[in-house]
Amino acid sequence: MREALFVKQNSEKWQHYESVRQANPDEVANQFIEITNDLAYAKTFYPNSKTTAYLNGLASKLHQAVYKNKKEKSNRFIHFWRTELPVLFFEHRKQIYYALIFFLVSCAIGALSAKYDDTFVRLIMGDDYVNMTNENIAKGDPFGVYKQSNEFLMFTQIGLNNIYVALYTFVLGIIFSFGSIVSLFRNGVMLGSFQYFFFSKGLGLQSVLVIWIHGTLEISAIVLAGAAGLVLGNSFLFPKTYNRMESVIKGAKDGLKIVLGLVPIFIVAAFFESFVTRHTGMPIYLSVFILTMSAIFIIWYVFIYPVKIIKKLSL
User: Fold this and answer.
1) Do the beta carbons of residue 35 and residue 59 sit within 8 Å?
2) Are 276 and 291 in contact (CB under 8 A)?
3) What is the distance between the alpha carbons of residues 100 and 223, in angstroms, rounded to a whole number?
4) Could you give the CA distance from residue 12 to residue 23 in angstroms, rounded to a whole number?
5) What is the pTM of this model?
6) Mind listing the pLDDT tens digit for each residue in 46-79?
């Protein structure tokens, strides 16, 4: 890459780092890592240039700030969910949009496949589950599956399984992002066919009011885990100004932070599924309230709040 292009691509970031006074040590540390990566690149390709000298000075300035603020704040965990995670959502919003699109298309494929192939739902969900659900429908309790296990046992199993699925989806991203897309596709097809099954039985609205009590948070978190996988995979495919190893390390850190940040969401979703969803006879307004508030939270925390945080940090 020519030096002029390198400067053009990064000058705005450098000026921002130089002019904005960051009080948070984690933010300063992240800036220091970014600048040292740029400095390493400049030293390799433009060793005697003014750009290298400038970056060396900026790196020294940030280095001093890092050690000046080395002491960890007591509210580290609060800062992570209040600031750091939303900033990552903003920085990687394109991957979130892509993951959401992949997932919605997969859901549509699953629903259409179930509509035009009577055996498709059994292929995806398994004969045992379909037979059990048909028996429950005949008994007048179509969602009886949520009542069969002990609440605490169900909570533990579902929570651990969902966290495993999220980590698995994320790690698969190292396969050129394709692995995470495949995982999103599988989950999307499963959800689409599963949801169509209930609509075909005349239980569409009822299934939404019951299943999406926990599904709103659970499915949203799986999509975000897929986005984290895309962050990892794209860091390998498109390293930009970093060398490939540095880019992958940064992508892995960002993606892993996103997945770990989803753990509380999975825990709440598991709680809803284990302790709340089983009460299929609850008032409609209560069900609507829970799933609506869950959807509002996801939209606010993932898409709206990060924009506000970025604007605040840029002042």
Assistant:
1) yes
2) no
3) 6
4) 20
5) 0.77
6) 888 888 888 788 877 777 765 554 454 547 788 8
Query: What do you get for the CA distance between the two ends of the chain, in Å?
Result: 32
Count of residues for the chain? 315
pLDDT tens, 214-236? Answer: 999 999 999 999 999 999 999 99
Q: What gap in Å lies between CA 107 and CA 190, rounded to an integer?
A: 7
Helix extents (H) in 201-243? 204-237
How far is residue 258's CA from residue 90's CA, in Å, rounded to a whole number?
11
97-139 pLDDT tens trace: 999 999 999 999 999 999 999 899 999 999 999 999 999 999 9
Tokens of 48: 């005697």
* Best CA proximity match to 120, nearest among 192, 199, 72: 192
Q: What is the dihedral of CA 207, 213, 219, 221, to 10 degrees?
A: 180
DSSP state of 242: S
% of the chain exceeding 90 in pLDDT: 66
Q: Is 231 exposed, middle or buried (0-12, 13-18, 19+ CB in 10 A)?
A: buried
Q: Does residue 273 carry a pLDDT above 60?
A: yes
Give backbone dihedrals phi and psi of 280, rounded to 5 degrees, phi first. Answer: -70, -15
One-letter amino acid identity for 270? A
In this structure, what token pair is assigned to residue 29?
């540390």
Q: Which two tokens stand for residue 65?
A: 């700030």
Tokens describing residue 78: 């609060």
- d(CA 5, CA 293) in angstroms, rounded, equals 46
Rounded Cα gap, residues 180 and 290, in angstroms: 29
CA-to-CA distance for 100 and 226, rounded, in angstroms? 9
Single out the residue of 231, 193, 232, 43 nearest to residue 109, CA to CA: 193
